[in-house]
Each structure stands twice: as structure tokens, then as C-alpha cells.
Amino acid sequence: MNAQDKFDVVTDKEFMFNVLHSLVAIVVIYLLAVFILTMVRLLMNYNLKKSLLEKGATEEVIAQILPPDKSGYQGALKWFTVLFAIGLGLLAVSCFQPLGIHSVIIMVFSIAFGFLGFYFLLRRSN
């Protein structure tokens, strides 16, 4: 690379490779952390319910202290809509070659439409 060469992010394959690997590492760490935190929360809730039952608390009291977790359904619905939108975005990007800034714009709008679809599905279910 000479001093006069312009740095182009899209055509520099080594830079894009490093960015992609960094993003994948961040996503994997995030997913592992969320999984571990969810498992710890479920385990702690189970232990609390078990100890309350051993102390002689009624099931109504336990249900009031620890209401049922409805976020599992909403989380699954959110991930489905967002991943479906990402899939559609990747399909649209593959149709409009070569890759460039328009590909990023297509992906941003597809993810935004995925979250918008999740909002409408959630509002409809409530």
C-alpha cells in the first residue's frame, strides 16, 4: 500500500475479515452471557419456590411472590421475527450484487422491519 492509496473499507478483505470475526465473537459472548444469566435466574427461582414450600407457604403466596415468566414466549417471538427479517434481508442482498453500502442499508431496514413486525405481533397478541 502506497502513501497515496485511498483506504476503502469495502474492498479491504483483511479489514472486513477482522471486523466480521470481532462481531461474531461479541455476539457469541453475548449469547453465552444471556444463557448463563437465564439459567441462574431459573435456578434461583426454583430454589426460592422450593424453600418457600418447605417453610409451609401456600401456592397462592408463592405465585404472588414469583409470578409466572411470560417473557419466554415474547423472546421466542422476537427472535423469530428478527431472524426471519435478517434472512429476508440477506436474500435481498444476494439479489443486488455487488456488495456495497446499499447492502448495509438493506440489512438495516430488514432488521428494522423485523422489530416492527414483532411490535405489531406483540400488540395483536395482547
Describe the structure.
It is a single chain. The chain has 2 domains: 1-67; 70-126, no CATH class. It has helices spanning 13-55, 59-65, 71-95, 101-125. α3 (71-95) packs antiparallel against α4 (101-125). It has 126 residues and is mostly helical. The protein has 4 helices and no strands.
**How many discrete structural domains?**
2
Class per helix and strand makeup = mainly alpha
| Overall geometry | elongated
End-to-end distance: 58 Å
> How many helices does DSSP assign?
4
| DSSP E strands, number | 0
Computed CA radius of gyration, to the nearest angstrom: 23 Å
- Give the biggest sheet: none
As a percent range, the share of strand residues is: under 5%
Order of SSEs: HHHH
SSE layout and pairing:
Layout: H1 13-55, H2 59-65, H3 71-95, H4 101-125
Helix pairs in contact: 3-4
What labels describe this entry?
126 residues, mainly alpha, 2 domains, 4 helices, 79% helix, elongated
Task: Kindly summarize this structure in a few lines.
Helix content is 79%, strand content 0%.
